[in-house]
Design a protein that fits this description.
This protein has a domain of 191 residues: 3-Layer(aba) Sandwich (Rossmann fold), CATH 3.40.50. It has 9 helices and 12 strands. 45% of the residues are buried.
Length: 289
């Protein structure tokens, strides 16, 4: 099976490259090699590679910057996926697109199912929802949209690596305690995506690690587990604060836990608890620096 992986330099893209299953030939392209907003370039690439499937891990993910860069966010997160859907339809190629919990407003107070109504509260969330809408309009139920949440890895910029840096630099940290979600290790997500490709799942699916946390809970766990592994030499005071005391350009959903039941049943296995995944990721950082 031949797969074209787009967004190959991002967190999920890097993990997908490291977890390629036997029997798959993958052409991996980052933004510099293949821009998903460039329809002619995409068309040429598909003619040359002739893949059976496309995994779109390319995205504009700067949530706060998107508020002032709306056009760029929509180009990458909506127009790009529409291009891929058009070409997938034309060449009859499976399309796997990664989306986000930020398509929800977070006011439901219980885990969001794939069919739950979307209502994004930020430009980033709106751009990702529009990408989903375009794909569904063009490909119908033939495409696969996988929503995930709070992604981190040993690659790129993410909450875990930012916390480790700040915990080394500061003596106290304020971390938001009233936004609830599910941290997700990109490596576990990558393995699940490959399984979905093999099974040729379609429709909308949710994947994140098991369990829930606030950003404050997550930060506390990062400190505790990093101290026990020698990644931090001292502990600092972490103060829980409400979102109101940490204003950002973009609004965030206060509760964006995803219901993964149907996806876990379809795959035949469930995700690790987020704290187990965090330990595994920190172990990896400890080994490789």
């Amino acid at each position: 099976m031949k797969v074209l992986l787009l967004g190959a330099e991002g967190q999920v893209g890097r993990e997908l490259r490291e977890t390629i299953p036997a029997g798959m030939t993958v052409t991996a392209a980052g933004h510099n090699l293949l821009d998903i907003t460039d329809l002619p370039a995409l068309q040429q690439a598909l003619k040359e590679i002739q893949p059976n499937a496309i995994i779109n891990a390319a995205a504009y993910t700067a949530v706060d910057k998107a508020e002032s860069e709306r056009q760029q966010a929509f180009a990458v997160n909506a127009e790009g996926p529409a291009n891929l859907a058009l070409l997938a339809e034309e060449y009859d190629i499976d399309l796997i697109h990664i989306s986000t919990d930020f398509v929800f407003d977070g006011r439901q107070g219980s885990p969001y199912r794939p069919e739950s109504p979307t209502n994004p509260v930020s430009v980033y969330g709106a751009s990702k929802r529009e990408g989903e809408r375009q794909i569904l309009e063009i490909r119908g139920s033939k495409a696969l949209i996988v929503r995930t949440s709070w992604v981190y890895s040993s690659y790129g910029n993410n909450f875990v690596k930012t916390m480790l840096r700040l915990m080394r630099e500061k003596t106290t940290l304020n971390v938001v305690s009233d936004q609830i979600g599910s941290p997700t290790w990109a490596k576990g997500l990558a393995s699940a995506l490959w399984k979905m490709v093999e099974l040729r799942l379609t429709g909308i699916h949710h994947w994140s690690d098991a369990g829930v946390a606030s950003w404050y809970d997550f930060a506390q766990a990062i400190q505790e587990e990093s101290l026990s592994r020698g990644l931090l030499q001292r502990s600092i005071v972490i103060q829980p604060i409400p979102t109101a005391l940490y204003p950002t350009p973009a609004s965030r959903p206060p509760y964006s836990v995803l219901d993964k039941t149907a996806t876990w049943q379809a795959l035949g296995y469930s995700a690790n608890h987020w704290r187990t995944s965090l330990c595994n990721m920190l172990q990896r950082i400890g080994k490789h620096g």
